[in-house]
From TrEMBL:
<feature type="domain" description="EAL">
    <location>
        <begin position="23"/>
        <end position="273"/>
    </location>
</feature>
<protein>
    <submittedName>
        <fullName>Diguanylate cyclase (GGDEF)-like protein</fullName>
    </submittedName>
</protein>
Amino acid sequence: AKADGRGTYRFFETGMDARAQARRLLEMDLRAALQRDEFEVFYQPIRDVASGRVVAFEALLRWNHPQRGLIAPIHFIPLAEETGLIVQLGEFVLRSACTDAASWPDDVDVAVNLSPVQFKSPNLIASVTEALAASGLDARRLELEITESVLLQNSEATLTTLHELRAMGVRISLDDFGTGYSSLSYLRSFPFDKIKIDRSFVSELATREDSMAIIRAVTGLGRSLGIVTTAEGVENDAQLELLRREGCTQAQGYLFSKPRPASDVAMMLEGPRLR
Ligand code: C2E
Ligand code: CA
Ligand code: CA
Ligand code: CA
C-alpha cells in the first residue's frame, strides 16, 4: 500500500495496468542485475574494406538473465534510459570495453555506444577519463558512437562535450546515419571522425536504386570531408562488393561475424579476410 498524498492508502497494484507492472518488475530486475554482475559486453569486428584487416570491434551490451537467457539491448536499454540506470550501465560498458581492448593488438580500436542520456550526464567526461586511466588504454584507440538525436538540442553544450572528448584523443562516430533527422549541416557543425551508414541502406543496396544513391553520396561526402565511412549490417558478398566499388572505408556485419564474447576476439581477429 502507498500513501496517495491526501492521507488515504490504496494498493498501488490495482491502479496500475499490466504494462506498468511489467515495467516496474523489469526496472527492479535491472537494478538487481547490475548488482549481480549479469551484464556482459560482446564484440563485433569492423574491417577495413580495402585491406580486409580488422581495425576495430564495436562493444555491444548483453544481459545474461538467469531465467530468460541472453537478452538483447532493445529489450532493456529504453527503460534503462528512462530510469537513468543507463548511466551506470554505460560506465560498466566503457570500463569493460577499455579493459578488454587494452589486451588486443594496439592497431585494433574499440567502439562504444553512448546513449543520449549518458552523453548529457555531467559524469561523462569523468567516466571516460576514469575508464581510460584504469585500463591504461590509449585514448586514440577509443571511439564513441553517438546518434543524431544527441545533436538536436543544446548544441552549445553538445559541441563543448565533443570538443573535450576529442581534445583527450577520443574519436567520435555518428551512428545510424540516415535514419534520424539527418542533416548535412551536422557534418559541418560538429567534429566527427566517422559516419556509420545505417544497416537499412545496406540491406536494400541490391534492390533499391535510391539506397545505392544514398550510399554513394555519403561515401563521397566522407571522402571529401576526410571522414571515415563505415557500412553497418553487411550480410553478403554482393553488398560488400558494391560498398568496395563506392569506396566505403569500413564494413561491419554478419558476413564477418555476429557479436561474440570477449573470449572470442582472438578467433575473430584470425577469421576470414576479405577477398
Ligand atoms: P547499433 O549501435 O546500431 O548496433 C548495431 C546492431 O546491429 C547490433 O545489435 C548488432 O548486433 C546488429 N548487427 C550487426 N551486424 C548485423 C547484420 O549483419 N545484420 C543484422 N540484422 N544486424 C546486425 P544489438 O547488439 O542488438 O544492439 C542494438 C542496439 O542497442 C545498438 O544498435 C545500440 O543502439 C544499442 N546498444 C547496444 N549496446 C549498447 C551500449 O552498450 N550502450 C548503449 N547506449 N546502447 C547500446
Ligand atoms: Ca553503434
Ligand atoms: Ca548503428
Ligand atoms: Ca541501429
